[in-house]
Specification:
Length: about 250
């Protein structure tokens, strides 16, 4: 099976709209997306102001209300493109893809319209053959939960949400927005969160796919699992995974 992997769109739709040609040319059987459909510029600015002023961030500001309407249109545009690909397309949300309720509603609408689109945040979906993909999105951290400005979840919540994996016998691919706390091949110091490492080591999937701070394309082997970071679609980057050959090919649409 060949899988197209990408993430960090950040509303650069000139690249996402070229995914159908990649699917066709590479003879892709499935698509995985690691989150961050949205840029969240206004939310990020208000979040930083609130931290500097030692107050709670406000969602009722005019700029944030306008961004929410823009975000809803961007989510619809993204999911419509996934639905047009003609192959199973699974995704988890990224840190920017808030508020949670808006994302969940857009994802539900997409799944009703397009049978090939699957939200696997806290869930799983079939990819064909004996393969399934399961995932947990958002930024996994030590203890904070936020689902209004950004999607941030404590590590225990991710671990609890994926406990159902112990009951599934299929060949597994795990999909995260947050990387494991490991050193990738081009790093000096490790990044990511220990919970993701723990989940991967516990369930030993054949492959794990995740976002990464800085968005660089990279891979590593964690126990028996090949971990792949696909790069940023906002910069044209994508990755093709050949599950039979365990081969990773990095590409760029620029």
């Amino acid at each position: 099976m060949k899988i197209l992997i990408t993430g960090d769109l950040l509303e650069q739709f000139q690249y996402v709209e070229r995914l159908p040609e990649v699917v066709k040319e590479a003879q892709v059987n499935a698509v995985l997306f690691t989150g961050n459909i949205l840029r969240a510029e206004a939310r990020e600015a208000e979040w930083r102001r609130a931290l500097a002023e030692r107050r709670a961030p406000r969602l009722d500001l005019p700029g944030l209300q306008k961004q929410r309407d823009d975000d809803a249109r961007s989510l619809h545009r993204f999911f419509a493109t996934l639905g047009s690909l003609g192959v199973p397309a699974c995704f988890v949300p990224g840190r920017n893809d808030a508020p949670e309720r808006l994302l969940v509603q857009a994802a539900f609408n997409a799944e009703v319209v397009a049978a090939n689109v699957h939200a696997v945040h806290r869930s799983f979906a079939p990819l064909g053959g004996n393969w399934i993909v399961a995932g947990f999105g958002g930024e996994i951290n030590a203890e904070e939960r936020n689902h209004q400005f950004f999607l941030r979840y404590p590590g225990w919540e991710a671990q609890f949400a994926l406990d159902f994996l112990r009951h599934l016998d299929q060949d597994k691919i795990l999909l995260f927005h947050t990387p494991p706390v490991e050193r990738f091949e081009d790093q000096v110091e490790p990044t990511g969160h220990e919970t993701v490492s723990h989940i991967i080591k516990t369930f030993a999937p054949h492959f794990a796919v995740c976002g990464r701070a800085g968005g660089r394309q990279s891979k590593l082997t964690l126990a028996t699992t090949l971990v792949v970071c696909p790069g940023r679609l906002s910069e044209g980057e994508y990755t093709i995974l050949d599950t039979k050959e365990r081969k990773v090919s990095f590409g760029n649409l620029r």
